[in-house]
């Protein structure tokens, strides 16, 4: 009889436990199916120069970050100082200018810093779709072979860089050195 | 009694006013798309109701007004027009956004619990129901008094 009385209590505790676990999950962060796969190929105009084509080849060759940004995205603007720090620290960053307007984007980069080595201009978001972009900013880590090794949806932050991104870059760079020697 | 026709009148006026607004909204979201064949039209219409908008996660791309949903609808339309079949389009989306874009999850190892849970719940419910029924039956069958007690009662009634 005592056991039967305890059952509802156990059920409620189990349910509460699940709800509590659910609080810790971020349902906005979907696991990307692209991790571990070669970055999708693309061919886009360069943001700075419509005559010049940017392709996946421009992004690969060393361990890089690929950052998807737009001027209309305020989180991207807030994230940029951190990207500047990374770029100054010697981490190459390439960018996709996503669903943006060339004039506006160029003016924005003129009046502020530019952490990007190459910027591919993707006004329609077609290449963004191939890369599975759905919420800017997004940041990918590509290894020297151009395989996507990590993806962050939303802004990077210092803690995340220290905990996940920088150690990963270290490992990948070490792999690259081993691979080439 | 005279108020009823008046109310009806008001209601129809209200409907006449609201209906076009509703229609306009429906068109704005579901941009009319023309397809050469009936089958393509059907495929497009079912697919946009089965793919999830990844930004606004509780809406299909048919319902959603997000720009990404518009992009996805456009892609579904283009692929349908190009002759891609249903599987090809779903695969395309799953490769980019993961299984999450499917409102109808595939039956595979990591979704087994999801698929089985309604049946599990039904089983648990049936178990509880059976327990209760059994308990009730036992209660109604249990003799209220022993033979001795009944005789004692009889004697009491007779006033012995």
From TrEMBL, chain A:
Gene3D superfamilies: Glutaredoxin (3.40.30.10). GO terms for cellular component: outer membrane-bounded periplasmic space; plasma membrane. SUPFAM superfamilies: Thioredoxin-like (SSF52833). It is found in: Cell inner membrane. It comes from the Bacteria. One of its GO terms (biological process) is cytochrome complex assembly. Residues 33-174 form the Thioredoxin domain. InterPro entries: Periplasmic_diS_OxRdtase_DsbE, Redoxin, Thioredoxin-like_sf, Thioredoxin_domain, Thioredoxin_ResA/DsbE_sf. PROSITE patterns: THIOREDOXIN_2. It is a single-pass membrane protein. Pfam families: Redoxin (PF08534). GO terms for molecular function: disulfide oxidoreductase activity. Keywords: Cytochrome c-type biogenesis, Disulfide bond, Redox-active center. Belongs to the thioredoxin family. DsbE subfamily. This is Thiol:disulfide interchange protein DsbE.
Automatic annotation (TrEMBL), chain B:
It holds the Pfam family CcmH. GO terms for biological process: cytochrome complex assembly. The chain crosses the membrane at residues 112-132. Residues 25-156 form the CcmH/CycL/Ccl2/NrfF N-terminal domain. GO terms for cellular component: plasma membrane. Gene3D superfamilies: Cytochrome C biogenesis protein. It comes from the Bacteria. Keywords: Cytochrome c-type biogenesis, Heme, Iron, Membrane, Metal-binding, Signal, Transmembrane, Transmembrane helix. GO terms for molecular function: metal ion binding. InterPro entries: C-type_cytochrome_biogenesis (IPR051263), CcmH/CycL/Ccl2/NrfF_N (IPR005616), CcmH/CycL/NrfF/Ccl2_sf (IPR038297). CDD domains: CcmH_N. PANTHER family: CYTOCHROME C-TYPE BIOGENESIS PROTEIN CCMH. Possible subunit of a heme lyase. Belongs to the CcmH/CycL/Ccl2/NrfF family. This is Cytochrome c-type biogenesis protein. It comes from Halomonas lysinitropha. The gene is ccmH_1.
């Amino acid at each position: 009889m005592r056991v039967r009385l305890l059952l509802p209590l156990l059920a409620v505790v189990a349910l509460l436990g699940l709800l509590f676990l659910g609080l810790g999950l971020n349902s906005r962060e979907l696991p990307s199916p692209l991790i571990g796969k070669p970055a999708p190929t693309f061919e886009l105009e360069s943001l700075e120069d419509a005559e010049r084509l940017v392709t996946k080849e421009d992004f690969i060759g060393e361990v890089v970050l690929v950052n998807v940004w737009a001027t209309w995205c305020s989180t991207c603007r807030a994230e940029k100082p951190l990207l500047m720090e990374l770029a100054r620290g010697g981490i190459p960053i390439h960018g996709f200018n996503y669903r943006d307007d060339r004039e506006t984007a160029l003016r924005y980069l003129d009046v502020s810093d530019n952490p990007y080595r190459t910027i591919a201009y993707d006004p329609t978001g077609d290449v963004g779709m191939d890369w599975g972009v759905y919420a800017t900013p997004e940041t990918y880590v590509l290894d020297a072979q151009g395989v996507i090794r990590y993806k962050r949806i939303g802004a990077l932050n210092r803690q995340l860089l220290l905990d996940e991104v920088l150690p990963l870059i270290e490992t990948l760079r070490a792999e690259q050195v081993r691979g080439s020697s | 009694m005279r108020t009823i026709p008046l109310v009806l009148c008001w209601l129809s006026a209200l409907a006449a006013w609201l209906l076009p607004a509703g229609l306009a909204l429906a068109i704005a979201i579901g941009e009319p798309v023309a397809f050469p064949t009936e089958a393509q039209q059907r495929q497009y219409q079912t697919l946009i109701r089965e793919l999830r908008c990844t930004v606004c996660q509780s809406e299909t791309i048919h319902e959603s007004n997000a720009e990404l949903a518009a992009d996805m609808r456009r892609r579904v339309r283009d692929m349908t027009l190009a002759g891609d079949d249903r599987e090809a389009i779903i695969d395309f989306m799953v490769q980019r956004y993961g299984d999450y874009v499917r409102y109808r999850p595939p039956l595979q190892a990591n979704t087994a619990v999801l698929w089985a849970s309604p049946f599990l719940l039904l089983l648990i419910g049936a178990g509880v129901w059976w327990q209760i029924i059994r308990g009730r039956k036992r209660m109604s069958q249990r003799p209220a008094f022993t033979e001795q007690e009944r005789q004692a009662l009889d004697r009491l009634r007779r006033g012995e």
